[in-house]
Amino acid sequence: MDPERWRTFLTEQQERVRDRTRRLEAELKTLVRARRGESDDDEHDPEGETLSARWSMLAGLLESAREDEWQAERAMARLASGAYGVCDSCGRPIPFPQLEVRPFRERCVSCSV
User: What are the transmembrane regions (predicted)?
Assistant: First the structure.
């Protein structure tokens, strides 16, 4: 495994995750501002979802994005220490195709089941 190749790849993935987090944070802030002063939970587009449902969905997506950010940071730390691409459970190398699909993976597929 070429560490520089993986560093570039992980950096790109990390930026995608950060961008997604920023977009979700901005969308949630916009929704919060739209809800400010509203007491009716059912304010919504009659053909769309309720604001409360949208808020809940965005909060869940944001939580997931923040978890992905944390995993990206851990992957970068593992790369720096030389442990990236090694299964935390069994110690065997994680196949490259698995890392390309899930770059923040800490365990091989066998140990993840």
Answer: none
